[in-house]
Design brief:
The structure holds 2 protein chains of 2 kinds. Chain A is of the alpha/beta class. Chain A is built from 8 helices and 21 strands. In chain A, helix 1 (2-9) runs parallel beside helix 8.
Chain lengths: 400, 417
Amino acid sequence: MTAAVEAAEVGYSVVLIEKEAFLGGRVIRSHKYFPKMCPPSCGFEINVRRIRSNPRITVHTLTTVEEITGSAGDFRVRLKTSPRYVTGNHSLDGSVIEQLSSERPDTFNMEIGTTGAVYYPHDSAWPPLHVVDREALSEADMLTLTEVAPPGSIDMGQTEEEFHLDAGAIIIATGWRPYDAAKLENLAFGQCPNVITNLMMERLAAPGGPTGGTILRPSDGEAPGNVAFVQCAGSRDENHLPYCSGVCCMASLKQARYLREQDEDAKITIFYIDIRTIGRLESFYHDLLEDENITFVKGKVAGISEDDGNNLILEVEDTIAGEKPTPQFDLVVLATGIVPNTADAPVPIELEYDDYGFIDGGTGVEGVHAAGCSRHPCDVSTATKEATAAALKAIQDLNR
Amino acid sequence: MATVETTAPGTPETEEQPQLAQTARVRPMKVDPDLEFIRALRRSGGESLKKCFQCGTCSASCPLSPDLHPFPRKEMAWALWGLKDQLMTDPDVWLCHHCNDCSTNCPRTGRPGDVLAAVREQSVQHYAFPRFLARWVTRPAFIPILLAIPAVLLGLAIRFRDGIGNALGFSPPAGEEIVYSFMPSLPHWLINCFFGFFGFLALVAAVIGIVRFSRGLRGSSVWGPDPQPVKGILSSLGSVVLKILVHDRFTQCETDHSRSISHFFVLFGFLSLALVTFWIITGPVNPLIGSDFIYPFSFWSPWKLLANVGGLAVLAGCLLMIWERLYFGHLAGTSSYFDWLLVWSIFLVVVTGFATEVLHYLRMVPHRQVIYFIHLVFVFSLLIYLPYSKLSHLLYRTTAMVMAERFGREAGEGAKP
């Protein structure tokens, strides 16, 4: 988004391609940014307004890039748009959706709970349109929908569309996904309901999330009084992600503050190998060291099991004390790391990737630039700065 | 921050860093790295040592590790820093049964299990008497001399049989006595005296090593400041022997479960062979046997059956060990020369033993005698090099386990999901 508005605002035409039904990706799913602890929605809404008011930006949601041919100054891009089935000509209201029973996993909320098969992506969604999940929609619901929806609002006859466009330069900002916590067998994600990931925690804390912004543990909906953060869950681990994602320490510290703000008696323990809060962020960590309710234990968690009450027991060595305690918690948050989306879905043009799927350094193709987590694990502010830099490089290409 | 971790006892904890000061129980120590020791560890199977970043996954995932001062994370730190003295006096190095649960879970492929195996090899060299023999056992170049010693000694015994017999009061071999032995020139009394004498020397060497080792163990930091025994030595020994026999420690491993099976076969095979050997040696004087003692046993005699079953058990266990080490090295661990020497020695002892027996039944007397001589060389090597080879684990590990039992150093109750 940033790259698009930066380039468009200096006079270039930009086409923004988004795979999801709405803009905002991972950022709009966060509750708050570190270190300022402000919600991402304000910056997001400013960017949306810049896009809306700028005629040079065209947005294609539900669209993927199928093929890129040509070279710098003269790329030809083949795109494919999946049907939304919602035309936007007439608005859909709640009374229509209430009459449907089909459900789908709530992908916006990291699959905590479900939404209806006809859903509004999130409160500040752009474009501000419902989406029909055709696969999740039962036949009966489809009939109901076509009967009760205002005429012209729904078009179930929409099909996948392919189209081409020409571009002088391409910016890759394909972003990231969390490392699949189900692969961390010893950490019992998916087996113990109260073991959640850091991204699930963001949704639990967010006002627009499944719990309305109150952090509750999944097994019984109780507010957790005693929470553990497991750092490097799959990161810096030759069996999983060998690299450090660089942001998970700050994310956990930030989430510890969510919990402390929610409940002044909440006890938090952070299990870590090293706390990696670089530069100015170090002071955020130092502030939490002052908090008597937050304990830092140096030691990587090797296993998690649960008791009859779904409380979690950790297998860990406190390496500074030289002891193996068996601490118990109401909720455990796994600090999972960043995997580039290009790791398993590379851009359809031959680019240079590192061993993990990041576009490290240059892309190897003139006229193609990468920004943010497609290049390396990074935080939001770094990603937006790189987006601006990528926009400048793309502009340079167009003026050669 | 780092300075806080080395706060000297009695230094007031500063107001600014209450959290860290609270957990910092590590006292300052002078690190005087033994670089040659680090190199030696890396040569003998611990080459992954330097990958360790001290996360503690290993200690947390080890089913045998106690809750207080758990291993092997602290051993990895000591090894990284070249703190040889700490490791040499550490009982935990020997409480480890090398099941490699730590190595498979290690996020850095630091393979702590293999590093501890390398430490044990160094430990044997450190405590063994005389030390030069322990060094020979770790170097392939010394194989010829290691084998030449028993061959020459046995040859001398045969050459001077009559002289030795006269000196010891044994009458020169009469016709009927030859039947007792597989080799007329090596009558039973000579084998018994020969093995008895050198076995005694090995025993003395073993006792010296173990006494040195036990003294070292007492100085270990894992016992805490004022260790009090919770059990007597004999009752500790009793429970340890029971644990060894039922393979209580081995069976807690998750990564390499077949190790407990192969070891079980080899151990019980050897125990039955030892029992038969004891029976034969004491035959003429053992009141339980009396005048019924007839040697060689017939094939269907219970003793011969026990010996054959025991031999087969050793062979099966040994083949399983070889197979594991060759094809499942990532589970079984890195195999150093020290490991292979023992495995192949045992293999050669059983194979030459069975070959002798088969040749005996085939009445191929000259061939049998040659193979039997080779068999005796291997058996003799196993016996006299016991205090120096990996077989010495039966002394060192048992000692460490008895000590741990005596001072209540139990495996932790840590959660195993």
